[in-house]
Amino acid sequence: MHFCSQGNKDGLCPLDKLEATRKKMNCKNELHVIDGGDHSFKIGKKYQESTGVNQQAAEMEAVKAIAKFVQNSIAGTWT
To answer: What's the predicted TM-score (pTM) here?
Structure first.
């Protein structure tokens, strides 16, 4: 099983390339995208101002996605 959290503005690993790699994987995998986030998940001020998203909320959503993945992995259930 594999979990990945990724910013959609990550210049080091564009989402289309990551998606192509995920399709080749044989194991269960999930992707959580942080809108406006870069490789370090940092969301630019302009993006935050234009969308109303803040860094802490975006990071908390990523933590929740990770926790759900771990919980499902332990329980052997997937939604």
So the answer is: 0.81
Pairing between β-strand 2-7 and β-strand 29-34 as defined by DSSP bridges: parallel
How many helices (H) does the chain have, and how many strands (E)?
Answer: 3, 2
User: Which among 43, 48, 79 has a CA at the least distance from the CA of 62?
Assistant: 43
Mean pLDDT across 38-66: 94
At 33, list the tokens: 């995208």
Q: What one-letter code names the amino acid at 75?
A: A
Which pLDDT score is estimated for 2? Answer: 87
Q: Which residue has the tokens 């992995």?
A: 73
CA angle 35/74/64 to nearest 5° reads: 25
